[in-house]
Design goal:
Elements (H helix, E strand, L loop, with lengths): L5 H27 L12 H22 L6 H21 L10 H12 L2 H24 L5 H55 L3 E5 L5 E4 L1 H6 L13 H12 L17 E9 L4 E9 H42 L6 H28 L7 E4 H15 L5 E6 L5 E4 L1 H23 L3 E8 L6 E7 L6 H4 L17 H11 L3 E6 L5 E6 L8
Parallel strand pairs: 6-8
Antiparallel strand pairs: 1-2, 1-4, 3-4, 5-7, 8-9, 9-11, 10-11
Helix pairs in contact: 1-2, 2-3, 3-4, 3-5, 4-5, 4-6, 5-6, 9-10, 12-14
Length: about 525
């Protein structure tokens, strides 16, 4: 056993000292108040003095510990050696070994085996044996004892050594087991902290709830997907999850429908699993942002579209180019009659329109996988406005409205330039037609609940009828005779490729508003 160190060993010594005080009190009561014919030998003045001394010494030790003394191994050894001497004196003054007080030394030796090193505890066992044999030998010389008592003293001496050896080995095993248990407890605690950190940093939202739907644990991603701040204390499962959980419990093979907890975010897909416990079971809810799934599906869709368009583009563009070139040659002829010239212009104009459609489809099918970067939006929008103004052929007004100049997003810059160029161009065109003023306002805001950045493009156009809004982002859908119907479709596809959403709403003061909701700023993939 190692020497005394730490709060636990100090606690053990303090407990043992209370035991010694209790023994002293019991001996004092026996000597002063409960004398009988069988205990006449215990009534001598010397014995009373020894009891008072025994009790006083250990009470003084308790007071020192209470005052803040932190005893070391040397203090413990001296205290136990003094106790052995005092108990030997009690045995001597109490009619020898036959009084049974020598058994108290077994407890003393056992305590030394726990609190001190093995060699020190064996030394104290030897000291106790010598003290007991010496006082019993002296009593035998004084004819106050018998040979049988000497034998008893020898047996007690052997018992002291056996106790020291057994308790030392037992204490060593207990301490080794306790040390291993503490090490494993620390490992489990560290593993629990590691698991907690991993779960909190996962992009997959995780909720753990009991049978009654009360949430026991929710990671940051789950709170974000549900539209709550990261420090929000979620008490119970939302109704949308409870409904899908009930359907899943009836049919575990069922894949529940995605739900939209926050209007400005992509729908959330919830999957469930049961966690069996000793009593009852918990429910684990895995929530996935369908924006990532949509991005992967969009990539596959663009690859398929690319294969289709690549196979027909060559067959269409060559004859289309020939027709367009022929129409241009006809238009250059001075002998062409006005009706024929008008027909040639129609051929040329529609050839260009068809070529534009093919170019847009090819551009969409070739759409490279997005390479998002962190974009500081205000400087980037200033640069975009300068480039757009320099390229414009008509006077127009392009306003920029924002509250926080430090707003950022994760988006492919080339994709964002293409999307914003298309939206701004449409807004200027419709504003000019409807109000005779080419005006667009780009508004930046951050959603407080989700910390997501939104970019809105407002115009003064007539807006879009409700019947057309459901088809607004479908390919080849257009409300203009000269439109291709691919501009908004391409914008939406590029936004989804960057895990952003594009939607149409009506502006606060009329007109239309296309709003881009970027992915969460901490979402890296």
């Amino acid at each position: 056993m190692s020497e005394l160190s730490g709060s636990e060993n100090l606690k053990l010594f303090n407990i043992y000292n209370h035991y010694r005080i209790t023994v002293g009190v019991v001996l004092g009561l026996s000597a002063f108040f409960f004398s009988s014919q069988t205990t006449q030998a215990l009534q001598g003045n010397l014995h009373r003095v020894m009891i008072i001394t025994y009790l006083s010494v250990h009470f003084f030790s308790a007071m020192l510990i209470w005052a803040g003394l932190r005893p070391n191994a040397r203090h413990i050894a001296l205290s136990l050696a003094l106790e052995i001497a005092l108990i030997t004196g009690l045995v001597y003054s109490g009619s020898g070994v036959s009084s049974g007080l020598g058994n108290l030394l077994i407890v003393c030796v056992a305590a030394s085996s726990i609190l001190l090193k093995k060699n020190v505890s064996l030394s104290l066992a030897a000291f106790a044996s010598l003290m007991l044999l010496s006082q019993e030998g002296y009593l035998l010389i004084q004819n106050q004892s018998h040979a049988d008592d000497m034998v008893k003293a020898g047996v007690l001496g052997i018992a002291y050594f056996v106790t020291a050896i057994l308790i030392t080995n037992l204490a060593r095993r207990i301490i080794t087991s306790e040390s291993l248990a503490r090490q494993r407890a620390r490992s489990l605690e560290e593993l629990e902290k590691l698991n907690y950190q991993i779960i909190q940093r996962m992009l997959t939202g995780i909720l753990v709830a009991d049978e009654n739907g009360f949430v026991r644990m929710a990671n940051r991603s789950a709170l974000t997907l549900l539209g709550h701040p990261e420090d929000y204390k979620l008490a119970a499962l939302p109704d949308a999850i409870k409904t899908r959980l009930a359907a899943w419990q009836q049919n575990p093979e069922l894949r529940t429908d995605p739900f939209k907890q926050v209007a400005d975010r992509a729908p959330v897909q919830a999957n469930f699993a049961m966690l069996q416990k000793e009593k009852g079971q918990d429910v684990i809810v895995f929530m996935e942002d369908t924006g990532k799934i949509t991005q992967q599906a969009q990539h596959l869709k663009m690859v398929s579209l690319g294969r289709l368009t690549a196979s027909i583009a060559h067959e269409i563009r060559n004859p289309l180019g020939a027709a367009s070139h022929a129409a241009q040659l006809l238009l250059e002829s001075a002998e062409l009659s006005p009706p024929d010239r008008k027909m040639a212009e129609i051929i040329h104009r529609h050839s260009l329109r068809m070529n534009n459609i093919i170019e847009n489809v090819l551009q969409l099918s070739r759409g490279k996988v997005s390479d998002p970067h962190v974009i500081e939006l205000i400087p980037w929008l200033d640069s975009f406005r300068q480039d757009f103004t320099a390229a414009g052929t008509l006077p127009y007004l392009l306003e920029l409205d924002y509250d926080d100049p430090s707003l950022t997003c994760r988006f492919d810059p080339s994709h964002l330039h293409q999307v914003l160029g298309n939206l701004v161009g449409n807004g200027l065109r419709y504003s000019q037609k409807h109000s005779n003023e080419a005006w667009v306002k780009i508004q930046l805001r951050q959603v407080e609940q989700t910390e997501q950045v939104q970019l809105a493009v407002h115009d003064k156009g007539p807006g879009i009828p409700a019947k057309d809004q459901t088809h607004l982002f479908e390919p080849f859908f257009t409300t203009e005779k000269q439109g291709t119907g691919l501009g908004l479709y391409i914008c939406k596809e590029l936004c989804e490729a960057n895990q952003a959403t594009l939607e149409f709403t009506h502006g606060e003061s009329g007109g239309g508003c296309f709003r881009i909701t970027f992915a969460h700023p901490k979402k890296l993939t």
